[in-house]
């Protein structure tokens, strides 16, 4: 902490040339930020909810082809942070001084196309629920900030192509189907959070963090996750219910994997790494409102769905609403299918129960082709597993029930 009284104000490490040390904020969470800029640099000021400390992140705006980020390891008070900003302003007065760009609530990530890096920020948020006292948020508004002055952008090569790629990026609507939390690992199930008891940095490497790649650069540079938010893509809805005089909170969460994701018909089956198309983990959490002094009653049920883990595809056509299924025979030993179920076993444990919803009988064989091959794959895999680890295969034709 910086000294108080008549002592000299703390010197930020990026101003005095020292390499910043890695130190954690006192309570580990910053949830509100202000972005400032000078002619040469950007300064992101973050603070915690209780306003007891402030931190500073400096981003180089003069080198567009590289992501140069430096974190000041000093923890500031409100007055010390204000003094620092005044000194930065005075030091840059001849070139326009220090200007406020925006207030924000976390970094979604950094992205680069043909020109400079862009910083994606959450500029408005809304509370959509809470889990065990941890607030869950959705994004109300986001903003893409180029880390380069507009005058330089218009003169750079490939300017038209750069604008096109930026427009494509802006088509991703972060205000729909994305959610996050500063203090709860919403990308993991309640059971995993309670059993693992892991502390420290947010697990961005999980398959359910949509912006893992966008945040990888800054996380590798500053070696922490205090400035970024881990976004989950899917669905979150929480409601309060009453049954026989007892009050509950019911939350339904769907987490969509960032691996092998894509639109219907364009992504099908499994890839060589055992990742299936459109893999979604669904969790239902029920919490009973506890009377003070009594333990909390809580229940969580998790299930997983995904494309059938075989190599297959469908050719889309406007004239054919039910395109034919093409089954590839290139994986005779079902290696990719095995990898898929090994991954499920690591994530959820054994036994793995497979609920197969493919049709049994069809006038023209389509889904039933997959049904037969899937059954063959499970039989082949089970032949190499012990009784306790074998896959439980249940057929359920919805058209018969």
Automatic annotation (TrEMBL):
Subcellular location as annotated: Vacuole membrane
Main location: membrane
Top-rank taxon, per record: Eukaryota
Subunit structure: Component of the PI(3,5)P2 regulatory complex at least composed of ATG18, SAC/FIG4, FAB1 and VAC14.
Catalysed reaction equations from the record: a 1,2-diacyl-sn-glycero-3-phospho-(1D-myo-inositol-3,5-bisphosphate) + H2O = a 1,2-diacyl-sn-glycero-3-phospho-(1D-myo-inositol-3-phosphate) + phosphate
Identification of the protein by name: SAC domain-containing protein
Membrane topology qualifier: Peripheral membrane protein
UniProt KW keywords: Hydrolase, Membrane, Vacuole
Positions of the UniProt region annotated as Disordered: 1-29
GO molecular function: phosphatidylinositol-3,5-bisphosphate 5-phosphatase activity
Domain SAC span(s) in chain numbering: 169-401
């Amino acid at each position: 902490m910086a000294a108080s009284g008549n002592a000299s104000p703390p010197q930020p490490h990026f101003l005095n040339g020292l390499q910043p040390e890695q130190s954690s904020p006192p309570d580990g969470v910053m949830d509100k930020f202000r972005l400032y800029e000078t002619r040469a640099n950007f300064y992101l000021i973050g603070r915690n909810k209780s306003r007891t400390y402030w931190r500073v992140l400096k981003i180089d705006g003069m080198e567009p082809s590289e992501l140069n980020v430096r974190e000041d390891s000093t923890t500031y008070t409100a007055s010390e942070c204000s003094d620092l900003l005044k000194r930065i302003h005075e030091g840059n007065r001849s070139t326009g001084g220090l200007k406020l760009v925006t207030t924000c609530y976390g970094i979604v990530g950094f992205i680069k196309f043909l020109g400079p890096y862009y910083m994606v920020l959450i500029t408005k948020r809304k509370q959509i629920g809470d889990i065990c006292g941890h607030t869950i948020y959705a994004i109300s508004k986001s903003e893409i900030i180029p880390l380069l002055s507009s005058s330089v952008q218009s003169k750079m090569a490939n300017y038209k192509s750069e604008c096109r790629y930026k427009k494509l990026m802006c088509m991703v609507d972060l205000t729909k189907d994305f959610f996050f939390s500063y203090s709860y690992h919403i990308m993991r199930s309640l059971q995993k959070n309670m059993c693992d008891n892991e502390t420290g940095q947010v697990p961005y490497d999980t398959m359910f963090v949509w912006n893992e790649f966008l945040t990888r650069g800054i996380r590798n540079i500053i070696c922490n996750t205090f400035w970024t938010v881990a976004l989950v893509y899917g669905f979150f809805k929480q409601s309060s219910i009453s049954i026989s005089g007892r009050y509950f909170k019911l939350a339904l969460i769907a987490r969509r994997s960032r691996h092998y994701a894509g639109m219907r018909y364009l992504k099908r089956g499994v890839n060589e790494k055992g990742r299936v198309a459109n893999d979604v983990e669904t969790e239902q959490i029920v919490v009973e409102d506890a009377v003070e002094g009594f333990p909390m009653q809580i229940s969580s049920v998790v299930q997983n769905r995904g494309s059938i883990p075989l190599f297959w595809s469908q050719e889309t056509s406007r004239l054919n609403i039910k395109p034919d299924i093409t089954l590839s025979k290139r994986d005779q030993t079902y290696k990719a299918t095995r990898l898929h179920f090994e991954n499920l076993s690591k994530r959820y444990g054994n036994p793995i129960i497979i609920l197969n919803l493919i049709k049994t009988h069809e006038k023209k064989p389509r889904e039933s082709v997959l049904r037969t091959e899937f059954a063959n794959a499970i039989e082949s895999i089970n032949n190499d597993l012990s009784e306790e680890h074998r896959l439980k295969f249940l057929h359920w034709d919805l058209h018969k029930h």
